Structures are given as structure tokens and as C-alpha cells.
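Office hours follow-up: a student asked to see two folded examples consecutively, so here they are.
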Amino acid sequence: MEKTLVKGCGTALLTPFKGNEVDYEAFAATVDWQVTTGIDFLVPLGTTGETPTLTESEKLQVLEVTRQHAAGRPVVAGVGSNSVRGTLENIRLLQDADAFLVVVPFYNKPPQRGIYAYFKAIAEAAPKPVILYNVPGRTGVNCDAETTLALARDVPNIIGIKEASGNLEQCRSILARKPEGFVLLSGNDEDTFTLMQEGAEGVISVASNVFPSAMADFVRALKEGRMEEAARMQERLLPLFKALFAEPNPIPAKAAMAQLGLMENSLRLPLVKASPATEALIKQTLQQLF
């Protein structure tokens, strides 16, 4: 897989449920919608997809449906766990993906040298390219810039990072010193405008589940240097970015998709439906956008 393929706007896909079962029909329709509205690549089985609650057979079927409906778009599967063995088992299960998104190990709270050794072991064993995923708000530990840069230099199979630390100075440090071809993708919709101005290649987006055409246009404007237009788009989209994190992701996103009639507002425990206040906020935000 060429590094250049994981650029632009990728969607961290929601997993629809009908009752407590995966709604594959709604999921296929969601992927079709993403493709027809111009999304560049697809990211199933991540945090937004409630992947820790899925069985192995459900993960396989979600990946298969994504690939069947991707229409040639790259598919990056979330495979991270908090052990080398667990992550490699996920990679073997999901080997038909084009690349693997691997989160910093959670709960363990490894030191930086442990993060480096973990990712090196995973990437050297993986049959497809690996994208790092740094999200300390969920994992409990940050992958710092020096560790990211060392992995980018030392391990050819690591092609980029989804940076969701919210630490813009850390992202700037990576962008300023990364080797040629290594891709930094924004992991927070709200940071995309700033990071792409400074050299990031795109975003793995939650908001593009809800408004894929606008997100694809926004990222395209940034890629093409149409900054005044992108700034207007950012101003328009910012309320959506904020509303989708009024509660832990993907709770608000599921509420939004249900309000749009695209899937049931159904989540698996320990996640629960949005509060009435969040539902009202989502409704108001969508009314202003559409």
C-alpha cells in the first residue's frame, strides 16, 4: 500500500446495531454514502465503531462489508489491543484490510521505550502497513514526539500516525521533523484546520459519519490551499465538531445518525444513549447545518 493512499478525509465508521445485533444492512448503506460523497478512505473497527464490544465473527463481517462497498477506497482496520499477542491476533483475523490502525496500548501505561518496542514488534510482524494511533485521553499514556519520530525513522512499515492528543505543539514537532513520506493525520476534527495548514495530510474523522460531503469538501479545500474557503467551512462545522463530543464518542454520533434516519440509536453496554440535553444539542446543530 502506498503511503500516499492514506491522505485526505477518512471516516472512523460507526457500527450500527439493531437491538443488540450488528445491522449490516445499515452499515453497508453507510459505507455507500461515504463513497458517493467523496470520502477518501475508510476506517472500520476503531473506537467510534465500538469495537471492544464486537465478537471476532462480527469484526470479520464488518471488514468484509466495508471492503465490498469501498469502491476502491483504502480500508484501514482498527486492530489495537494492550498486548502484542492480542494485536497480532487481530491482524491475522483482519488481514484483508489495506493497512492497520494500532492504538497506543491502553491500561498498561507503558513508558516511552515500551511504546517504541511494542510498535516495532507489531510493525515488523504485520503483513500490511501500520498507522500509529495516539489518543492519551482514552489510553492513559501519551506517545511523545520523540517516540513517534524514532518509529517513523526506524521502522519502514510504520507509515503514519493518527494524532488525537490535542497537543498542537507535539504535532508541530512531529510535522517539522518527520521523515519524508511519513503521514500525520488529525485525530480530532476540531484540530484539522490548524494541523493541515502546518503540513498534516488529512483527518480520520468522526464528523464525516454525519456530514461526509461537507467534511470531504473541507479537507479538499485545505489540501488545495483554499484557506479562506476552508476557514468559512471550519466556522460552519465547528458546532458539529463540539456537539459530537458533548458526551464520550460515539454516543452523540449515534444520536445524530438516528435523527438523520440512517441507523438506530442503539449502543452496546457499557455505552448508553445520549442524555436528553445532548439529544437536544444534536437536533439544534443538525437543524443549523441542513
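And the second, which I mentioned at the end of office hours:
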Amino acid sequence: MYSIKQVSELLDIPAVTIRAWENRYKIVTPTRTEGGHRLYSNKDIETLKWIKKQLDEHNMKISDAVRLHRRSTEQAPAAPFPPSKGYEGLIDELYQALMNLDAQEANRMTDLAFSLYDYEEVFHHILVKVLYKIGGEWENGIITVGQEHFASQFIMNRCTQFFRIFPVNPALPKVLAFCPEGELHHIGLMMFSLFLRKKGHEVIYLGPNTPLDGLSELMKMKHVSLIAVSLSNPRPLDELENWIEEQLKSEPSLKVILGGTGIKSQNRFDERSVSYSIGMDWDEWYRGFM
């Protein structure tokens, strides 16, 4: 569920306009918190997005767009994916759209996924599965590098949109998230960063292939107190741990979370400062470490 401020930022529609459409045309029906604040569902967001598209791209009047939407809803065919197909149907269709380099169809399938499932379900059970499938087929020479790059960039772009939605709690520790130099696989880091953003943390996301030089100054400038690092390639681990040791000496209150298949749990650091997350439930880790 999303606040009116989050919906406004996501769709680039002024909050006053959303309220006007709701009050005059009843185009969406958000629920209310105990305090009376509006909460919008994924379905509400899709409806508002569709209305805005008609106004922006087809110069349609709001009344005509609402009328057309209601007519299409009344005549809408059955859902394209029966419950028995679930995630797999969406995975197959999104995969095919990406292999065809069809951004419009890929966006349609992704929008459908978000309308059917919670965003975390979409990330973990659909988008990540599609990425793994594409990565494996690229390594086996089944698809081209162009197809792999297009698909990876598309999915990462859809994920990063959520950084704009979740509100930041300035009282919570600021996070620096990166993959060290030489590490290009960062979907796991992106998912974990979104988990922290949903908790209210400000996350400075540097992404893949990040040199360690200069990070200390950046951390001081932004008052970072938690570092999240992901590795699938174990080769940079020794250099990374030496760097972490230096950071802990200069800032003993710093906390570090290390994850990814290239990380092996060790006893080099005090477990109160450094957590090696190997397949750990993130909520469980958060409760115990934060």
C-alpha cells in the first residue's frame, strides 16, 4: 500500500489532482488509516497510470478517459494467467518479451505482476528468476550479449524505481551499498538495499564494480554507519576484509553486512560489528543485528 505522496512521486501526478479525480470521478477508492490518511493499492496505481497515459499521449479529456476505462473494465476479458499458472506464466511471458527486446510488452507484463502480487513477491519470485534464467542461457551461448544486457538493464531499472517510493527515516542509520571492483553481479545487493529502504534507511547505492579508494571520505561526508557489500566472486574478499578492518579501527561503531555466494563466514571480526549473511532470513538478521 502506498501513501498519496508516494503515488504522486511515482506517477508524477500532483496529489491535489489525484484527490480531485477520486472525489469527482470515483476512479480509485483508496483505503484509510486510523488517522484518515489515504492508502493506495497496486491496482489503484495502475488505474491512475492508465488515466494519465490517455491524457498525456492521446490528449483525452479526463471525463472521456474515465468513461473509457470503466467501459474497458466492464468488458475486460478473464485474467490472462489463471491461478494455476501463477509465477511461471508471468516468468515465461516476461522472458519472451525481453528476448524480443520488446520494452512495451515487458513493461506490460511487469505492471501486471505488480498488480497481482506484492512487490517483494514480484522481485524474488519473478524478476530474479527471469534474471537467473537469462544469465544461465547467456553463459551457455543460447542468447546474445545484447539480449542479456537489455534484459538485465530493464529489470534493474524497474527495481530502482522503488527507491523513490519508500520514505526515509532520518533517525535510522545511513547505509552505503556496493559490490567491490571486479564484481558485476548486483541484483542481490539491489534486493537487500530495497529491503533496507522499506525499513526507512537512506541507502547510498553505488552498485557494481566499485573501487575501495575514496569510500572512506564518502562515508564521513554522508555520515554512513552501515555498509552492505555483496560478492559472488571470492577473489576480492581478502582485500575487502582488510579495508573493513581499517574502517572499523577509525570508526568502531560502524556495522557491516557481507552477503553473496562469494562470502564465507569467518571469525575475523566481532560479530557485533560484521555480519556474514549466508542465506539468512533478512527480517531475522535485521532484528538481531540492528
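Two things to take away from it. Residues 119-139 form the longest helix (21 residues). The chain has three domains: 4-74, 86-162, 167-289.
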